[in-house]
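S1.2 Input.
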Amino acid sequence: MGIIDHFKGMDMDFSSKCRQVDELKMECARSNRGTTAFSSLLSMSRDFDQTRRNNNMLVFDEKESNFDLVLDNLKDDNCNYVVVDFDGAYYQEMANDFAMRGFAVKKINLMDVENSDGYNPFSYTQDEIDVDILVQCIVANTNSSYYMRASIGERIIINNLEKTFLKILISCYMKYGTSKTMNAAVNLLSGEDREVKLDRLFSGMFPQGPNEMECNRYKVFKQEAGDRFSDIVSSCADRIEIFKEDRMIALAKKEPLQFEHLYLGKQVLFIMIPSNMRQAELLTSVILSQICNMLCNESRRNNKDRTVMMYFNYFADLGMVVDLERLISQFPHFNLGCMLHVNSFAKLGQIYKDWEVILEACDSMVYLGLNDDPTHQYVLEHADSVMIRKKRMMGKEMYVSAQLKIDEIRDMDANDCIAVVKGIGTFLTPRCGRWIDLDN
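S1.3 Output.
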């Protein structure tokens, strides 16, 4: 290829391209809140006050290439971390390293409960808003045979009745239960005499039990449910049955983690769940919803110096994180950031009605590969029209740019990634854990 052909179609304004990359390097050098790695050659400051870009990153990948990307982003001592860790791969790789760097390593470990910190959903349920979050997680991420048999119109009615009953039940156990656990609530719904037990609980006979207003709420619900009452109770029991598992009971007996303390000192929390666990979506949904809301509330009360980065690996498999559409745009004001690993574009749309709002709230994006046209089109639409890359030409390293085309996204080399940084540019660069020889 001749030198003229080699340069054809390229933007030769090297100085402006260098300035854009150098700007990122200068931001990283000045940052005291850590840096986010996009690739082996490209990083960005996590200091929102300095950059005015949030720390929310969107990662498209279906081949687990994001593993190296996440590992590179867990190596900064200036941030605290929450890591969704299916099968414990990140914990196995990084736990000792974190401990050696002075981090307090916390874990919710559904694979090995004996070596886990405690977790009880009721520990983070202090008021009606918290109850509503827990109920939304349960209803959004589970189904029951009764609900599935119903017609579309009936499902709306059943859904509302189930939400009402679960709010009444959980509020009652949160306030009055001798055993403040979801397992105790499930046990109340077990057996043929559950209606008798519920009527007795909400009879108003017990001085340490539900008050008159709460008993009236139950009576109104029972009247509205009518002939559906028994099926509604049975359906709710099916939805929360996972909390009867031995490992969930064992976790609830331990001293629960204090999510609001994740801002303090140097801390990392691994959420380890077996990838084949039944109703894993419900557990990740509840845990992450409670973490997000508690960290936002804690940041409102206290101005925190440390940023907490949350890594939502396999985001489309985590169930619905309640209110994420609203919260994610506010994360930078709460010293929060998240990496959303999108492994299924279609499934994401099934979980979140306003999924576009979530993706648009990410000021950076890394494309590692996802073999479907909607993803390719999304990357093309949200990247710059020209893409910057580093080349060695005429014995010198230079930044060059060329028009970004959808074929280049589809056929991207396995060693590369496409990184998009809002306000800076779009880059073709070696992905984390990979290096290329610029001499070739």
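S1.4 Remarks. Residues 152-176 form the longest helix (25 residues).
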